[in-house]
Amino acid sequence: MTPQDASRRAREICGMAPIVPVLVVNDASRARPLAEALVAGGLPALEVTLRTPAALEVIAEMAKVKGGVVGAGTLITPEDVRAAKDAGATFGVSPGATDALIDACEAMDLPLLAGAATATEAMKLLERGYDMLKFFPAEASGGAPALKAIGAPLPQVSFCPTGGVSPSNAMEYLSLSNVVCAGGSWVAPADLVASGDWAGIEALAREASTLGR
């Protein structure tokens, strides 16, 4: 997969809804109903972070949900890429970017939403052909004002800000011309997942799906 094709596909996925749920799931038995609730609420693009022992099984279960597009977050090594792809992930998300990680994603035809927090990092990725990036950690890196400032000299690069994005500040990001969507974890709070309150999660997803529209 070429960088241009990867960015094109990443942009398509990011454009499916204003919010991409960032999911940390400890129990694979919760995966499928959680994904069904989020998709029913209008958030079809799902990022499952590789931060729990169950993450790969969670990806495999969510990949079975009709209408969902499941990706793996926290990709750091080529081994992560292979494991995520084998589990059924159809896109990847990384907190940053290394040549080894990018090479692995290209070799395995896994579209990558690579992380960048500075103009230099964004320029290096753009140099490799990537123009759809993750801005991370968004709030700690200066928030919407910083992302707006980066966009002035780099208008050809688009972002999905993640990290500290919440209902109270999401619109600050979504109103920027260089933002396609934002990543957020609030649509699947741990307490609702633990209690199996799928109706509550669907309601949060439906509310998030209307942001900026």
What does this structure look like?
The chain is of the alpha/beta class. It has one domain (3-204): Aldolase class I (TIM Barrel). The chain contains ten helices and nine strands. The strands form two sheets. A six-stranded parallel sheet has the order 5-4-3-2-1-9, with helices on both faces. A three-stranded parallel sheet has the order 6-7-8. Helix 2 (31-40) links the parallel strand 1 and strand 2. The radius of gyration is 16 Å and the shape is globular. The protein starts with a helix and ends in a 5-residue tail after the last helix. Keywords: Carbohydrate metabolism, Lyase, Schiff base. It holds the Pfam family Aldolase. One of its GO terms (molecular function) is 2-dehydro-3-deoxy-phosphogluconate aldolase activity. InterPro entries: Aldlse_KDPG_KHG, Aldolase_TIM, KDPG/KHG_AS_1, KDPG/KHG_AS_2. It comes from Roseobacter ponti.
